[in-house]
Automatic annotation (TrEMBL):
Signal peptide: none annotated. The chain crosses the membrane at residues 6-35, 56-77, 116-140, 152-175, 187-207. This is Olfactory receptor. It comes from Chrysochloris asiatica. The gene is LOC102820768. PANTHER family: OLFACTORY RECEPTOR (PTHR26452). It is found in: Cell membrane. The lineage of its organism: Eukaryota, Metazoa, Chordata, Craniata, Vertebrata. Keywords: Cell membrane, G-protein coupled receptor, Membrane, Olfaction, Receptor, Sensory transduction, Transducer, Transmembrane, Transmembrane helix. Belongs to the G-protein coupled receptor 1 family. The keyword Isomerase does not apply.
């Protein structure tokens, strides 16, 4: 916005912390949501007990606490290395693989160790989501009612789409070799996992909520009613 590609060291540290914390929180929320759908479809009569408000509050606290801890670990490990090359980041934000490329010694092994640990946690979360959906689909396919199967699939498929999209693009971005000159494809992949999933979340989940639907319906009807009153007043 300021036509300036400069970012200070402190701003870069803050950006890496916020990015890592929110990225991890997004994955943790998606994991909790897969368990929520597993409980709703596989144990519908016990759902209120399994996902009671107290457990949901603890789940939210665990999500944000784990996000903050991972952000602190990742940021501390990343900025413990010495940057001695030309400090040019070929990305539109402080991307960690690009930052590691600026190191000219082997002191980035600690950062790679933290990355390996976080990839292990990501794999555990992904495995939990896969196991949840194996149970979900096996339960849905045994449902005798076509309407019940359709409702269950309409509940699960948006979440499954966001999970697949987010994890696939994020993993591809972090595993592919970093380039000295960014291409349009590199920037597009980065946008896919940093921008699009947060934009899709309120659309996919919020507009499926009955309270949100009712609020949007009232807002739309209220706008139509106001336009009719204005038209009558003008007449």
């Amino acid at each position: 916005l300021m036509n300036d590609g400069y970012i200070s060291y402190g701003q870069c540290v803050l950006q890496v912390f916020i990015f890592t914390s929110l990225a991890w929180s997004e994955l943790a929320i998606l994991t909790v949501m897969s368990y929520d759908r597993y409980a709703a479809i596989c144990f519908p009569l016990h759902y209120e007990v399994i996902m009671n408000p107290s457990k949901c509050q603890w789940a939210v606290i665990a999500v944000w606490l784990s996000g903050s801890i991972s952000g602190i670990l990742y940021t501390s490990a990343t900025f413990s290395i010495t940057f001695c090359k030309a400090k040019i980041i070929h990305q539109f934000f402080c991307d960690v693989p690009q930052l590691l490329k600026l190191s000219c010694s082997n002191n980035y092994l600690g950062a790679i160790g933290v990355e390996a640990f976080m990839f292990l946690i990501v794999f555990i979360c992904f495995s939990s989501i896969v196991i949840s959906y194996i149970h979900i689909f096996s339960t849905v396919l045994r449902m005798p009612s076509d309407e019940g199967r359709s409702k269950a699939f309409s509940t699960c498929l948006p979440h499954l789409f966001v999970v697949s999209f987010y994890i696939t693009t994020g993993t591809f971005e972090f595993l592919k070799p970093t380039s000295d000159s960014p291409t349009a494809f590199d920037l597009m992949i980065s946008i896919f996992y940093t921008v699009i999933p947060p934009i899709l979340n309120p659309i996919i989940y919020g507009l499926r909520n009955e309270a949100m639907k009712e609020a949007c319906r009232k807002l739309r009807l209220g706008g139509q009613f106001t336009r009719k009153k204005t038209f009558l007043f003008c007449c």
